[in-house]
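Structural biology now treats backbone shape like a language. To illustrate, our science desk offers a sequence and the tokens encoding its fold:
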Amino acid sequence: MYATTDTLATTPAALGGRSRWLALYTLCAGMLMIVLDVTVVNVALPAIQDDLGFTSSSLAWVVNAYLIAFGGLLLLAGRLGDLLGRRNIFLAGLIVFTAASVLCGLAQSQEVLVIARFIQGVGGALTSAVILGMIVTLFPEPREQAKAIGVYAFVASAGGSIGLLAGGVLTQAINWHWIFFVNLPIGALTAVLAVRLIPADKGLGLGRGTDVPGAVLITAALMVGVFTIVKPAAELGWTAPRTLVFGVVTVVLLASFIVREATAANPLVPLRIFRSRTLTGANLIQALSASGMFGIFFLGSLYLQRVLGYDALEIGLAFLPTTLVMGLLSVRYSEKLVMRFGPRRPLIAGLVLIVIGLALFTQAPVGGNYFVHVLPVLILLGFGGGICFPALMGLSMADVNPEDAGLASGLIGTTAEVGAALGLAVLATLSATRTAAVADTKPTLEALTDGYHLSFAIAAAIVATAVLIACTLMRPAKQPVTEVTDAALEAA
């Protein structure tokens, strides 16, 4: 069920147990830096706008420039890890991301900041795309691998809420420049530790997958697709002529890429990887769950800010219970659940808890009380995410050949990124539309709350669709050793 071999020059078996876990923590430190960046910047956007004179529309490019580069390059970065060595790509991404962070912090103009954010996105894609592939290689034994993936899943899914808190503290205590400068010591230390702790791998070599046309087509398709979601679709609507034009371009580029990969001698993305029902289903679930969860964290923050009057630091503290619950489950209990029941059952149970939490959020009123109307939702989301995301990460790599581990890692990251961008655009648009529709008949706060309620309900429906896919498309997991042993004892 799990990947067990690779082209590592220093095999995982040659590393001591402590060294492998230190290597995991180093990989997770790199991932945390990438994940934190998104929400840290969101909290600091008002301060950036005031300082550099951004308009409301141009301010979106501080986020969009990063998302376009990050989402567009994840798949390519994952494959490059297979070809050139995953540690090499991880280190290259760290260097690019850290250098771009310094440039962001030094930026005194809008143009410099937006360009630096794009470069940050490139570094983020290179760094994060290969991490999951390295983890399944470092931990070939199923029980340890499940635990390691639990740690990674916690960092990847809960790190964003930590960013809300860190962004509020840094922005209010010092200034917005430090949300970028703080990456310099973290990135430098992570790079040094990565060289010392992570075994080097030589990769398959460019001769096994030098597909320049395919690389150009998929990168262009993903970048245009993400741009379409975060810009014309979000601002002009899904049926606007500009949105439709960019949508058609995206579809044509994707179709051309598929044709190229089906006929290339050494394809960048071998289409055989999608023959796995488990991998295909895991990516569909990842896209849907990311759509619901990311959109709700964003719109939930707006509910706390605009309706309940929370400031940036209070919003960060409000979401902290989700992080704590998710961290406890991911690190301490996800491995035990996966080994006892297999990954499929925890996946379904976690997704159901998320659906319940999102549905409950539709009842949050204008004069809502945090402990009554918000905290129970956040705890349910924490339980759901802590149970399902580690299982989902394991399933996404379950049927993958060792030589395709980087590609599969980049693929699951790509579906999460595109799903999150799509979900945010759809939910934010529908929320705003609903608010505008009732603005003439209801007070402002009630109109805003109506819009948020609609988005929460749609998010619940999106994640419910992921539950249906998990129940019908995913293969039943292999029976864990502990479960077989229990059955044998009962029979005896």
